[in-house]
User: Which sequence fits this backbone?
């Protein structure tokens, strides 16, 4: 092999093994599905963030349906003689179910350094209403 | 300095997904390092080892509460060992859309040369 990784050697390897052993399995999510998603909210918006390295905005298809947000696209494979391939390639799709009302016309998406951010504003007109019951 | 070191240590260390392939004009290394800005990325060559380190600080405000977390801030660290056939002077690196591309060209072959023999 002309070019190889030193998978068996890196500084602090032993510490790393111990660290991994005692660490809760929070990093498991990284290997679950591509692309990984973070979903968060604050007072005004919901945020869906995703790591989609190597994709330009026009290569990502975002669809907002009645009840879900769909992120799909394709990662191309590089041409050449592979020695090692770890990066996921091919078609991907992830569906985020929206069980909450959002302001559909004001949804924005941005892409920076391979991280996609979709901002879904909370619906102002959809705040829960009180219904008064008239006693007959 | 020490404060900086502890801050770095707090970040989870992640080994980025990497492709290595060979083409006509040399070797290519692709690394997925989403969230790393150009100024947070370091590439060092030390003897036969090329080390890539980058810090990804996910830009979320503190007011947000997370419902689902599948990735987070982290420090990407990965080392690649270089063969003697790689021309170290001409290694090129570019970062686009969270993918680091390293081009490692082969050394040009030395042209054959005849050594004249001098008569003493």
Assistant:
């Amino acid at each position: 092999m002309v070019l190889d990784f030193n998978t068996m050697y890196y500084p602090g390897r032993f510490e790393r093994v111990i660290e991994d052993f005692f660490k809760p399995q929070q990093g498991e999510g990284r290997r679950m599905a591509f692309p990984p998603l973070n979903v968060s909210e604050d007072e005004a918006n919901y945020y869906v963030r995703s790591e989609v390295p190597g994709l330009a905005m026009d290569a990502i298809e975002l669809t907002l349906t009645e009840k879900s947000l769909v992120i799909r696209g394709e990662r191309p494979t590089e041409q050449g003689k592979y020695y090692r391939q770890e990066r996921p390639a091919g078609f991907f799709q992830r569906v985020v179910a929206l069980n909450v009302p959002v302001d559909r016309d004001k949804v924005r998406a941005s892409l920076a350094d391979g991280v996609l951010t979709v901002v879904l504003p909370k619906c102002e007109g959809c705040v829960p209403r009180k219904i008064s019951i008239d006693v007959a | 300095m020490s404060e900086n070191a502890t801050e770095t240590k707090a970040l989870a260390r992640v080994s980025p997904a990497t492709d290595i392939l060979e083409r006509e004009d040399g070797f290519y290394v692709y690394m997925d390092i989403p969230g790393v800005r150009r100024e947070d990325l370091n590439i060092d060559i030390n003897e036969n080892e090329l080390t890539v380190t980058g810090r990804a600080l996910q830009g979320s405000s503190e007011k947000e509460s997370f419902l689902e977390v599948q990735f987070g801030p982290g420090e990407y660290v990965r080392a690649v060992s270089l063969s003697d056939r790689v021309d170290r002077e001409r290694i090129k690196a570019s970062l686009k859309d969270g993918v680091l591309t390293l081009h490692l060209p082969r050394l040009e072959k030395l042209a054959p040369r005849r050594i004249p023999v001098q008569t003493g």
About this structure: Residues 85 and 109 of chain B are 9 Å apart (CA to CA).
